[in-house]
Amino acid sequence: MKSKRFTFLIIVSISSLFCAGESSASPQKNSPAPGTEQTGEPKTASIRGSLKLQSNIINEVDWQTMEGQITQLVKLQQIELPTDWPTMKVAERQAWLADFYETKIGAALKAKNQTLLDERFQKQFQIREAGKFVLYDVPQGQYEMKISAQTKADGKRWLVQSYGQFEVGEVDELDFSNMPLDVMRLLTVGETVPEVTGKSLDGTEVKLSDIRDQPVLLVFGITSNPAFKITTASLKELLDSTEAAGTVQVVTVTLDEDLEAVKKFNEENAVTWPCINLGKWDQEILFEYGIRSVPSFWLIDSQGKIILTGQEFVAELNRRQTGVPELVADALAGRLESQNESKE
Prior knowledge:
By secondary structure, the chain is α+β, with helices and mostly antiparallel strands.
């Protein structure tokens, strides 16, 4: 039996919010990778692996609470976007996409991509004792694997997880032994956000609590990331909107090492709201917030308590298909479905 051993990589992706229409990898079911089409029964492989906890915070994990899933990746057909897409507001982009999908070409593209998603190969699995797992009959192709569980330690909630991408090729078995488990903080609605301390644009030390006098949309990002320019445009749209005007302030937390680069970015993009610069990515505060990619949006009230976490903010945007101003206005007014469910 042919066997191949792989090193499992932890991959952290940088989010590109509001960048609809760009290429993306999405799962597909029971479909071989391009160039690996076969006749007769498709080639499949078994996957065996084990997990290894590497943390000073959590000493042990209840393996039975951990769940995993593998999903085959496929490139969806891209949309040919208009030339003025980069300067369009979120609402304008949504309207353009809605009109495009009403056309014959758009409807066909949407149907084709949906078929790829519906036919994707994906499989859930449980973790056994000692952190071991096994999967059978996995077709050839590119995959992502996610394994996670929630736990408590030191009076805080934590997410224990592992994520990576791999390929199933001309092998009978893959070996993923000692996959590292990453630990990150899980903040929830109603908790007080950790204090953020950094440098203002004039180089003096500043704290979030010092500039927070009303509800705040706190946004973590890197100005050199192209997605942050689009994010900044959406923040300006928020402050100019009638839905949220006067009810919320914006504070950006930048992770750039060069403070002068942040100043230049703010000048070129007419940023008028407060900015806290942390100076680099590897900061304890990002760990406290559980931030793995940016931009990351956090809506908090005037007392510093969470209304929407970073994960929930993005999930609501995707679910509602509305812009930032509408989401913030509804969240502050308590009109979100998740808020109503928590009251019942």
